[in-house]
Design brief:
Elements (H helix, E strand, L loop, with lengths): L1 H6 L3 H13 L7 H13 L3 H12 L3 H13 L7 H4 L50 H18 L6
Helix pairs in contact: 2-3, 2-4, 3-4, 3-5
């Protein structure tokens, strides 16, 4: 992804590619490619890229520097397809109001009073009305849910 952005002329991506190639991070260490990417970013006004380019050049021998300069001369930035960056306008244009109007939400009805010993979930439901199969595993699961809610409401850790 970064390489594609660099090939499209994105200055920050070119700088990042220069770093990756100079350090061999995710790509093979390649000072020629590093110098190329830093040079491309520097051509677009990136002063840090110009400094890095010079640092990389100091580590290169003459034939490698010549190869890098040749690669720079041959580099042509790709042009993205205009369709990739253009979205068709919606019917009525971008500023038109949506034909579908949102319905106003009705206020929630107040929760019913709880019967003695019943518990309410954090979502406001009445857990005493939940039908649970009478198995030991299901009851244990429900008990752990109650304990979890109690700990959360008290602000305690659940670990």
């Amino acid at each position: 992804m970064v390489r594609k952005a660099g090939q499209l002329g994105i200055r920050d991506s070119q700088f990042n590619l220069g770093i990756l190639c100079a350090r061999g991070m995710g790509v093979p260490l390649d000072l020629v490619q590093s110098w190329l990417w830093f040079s491309l970013a520097a051509q677009q006004g990136d002063a840090d890229a110009a400094k890095k380019r010079d640092e990389v050049a100091a580590k290169m021998d003459a034939p490698a520097l010549l190869a890098a300069a040749k690669a720079l001369a041959e580099f042509k930035a790709s042009t993205p397809s205009p369709a990739a960056n253009e979205a068709p306008a919606p019917p009525g244009g971008w500023d038109a109001k949506s034909a579908r109007r949102r319905r106003a939400r009705r206020p929630r009805a107040p929760a019913r009073p709880l019967s003695k010993g019943a518990r309410r979930s954090s979502a406001g439901g009445n857990l005493s009305r939940v039908k649970v199969p009478h198995s030991g595993a299901a009851l244990k699961c429900l008990e752990s849910l109650f304990e979890f809610e109690d700990r959360m409401s008290a602000g305690l850790s659940c670990v």
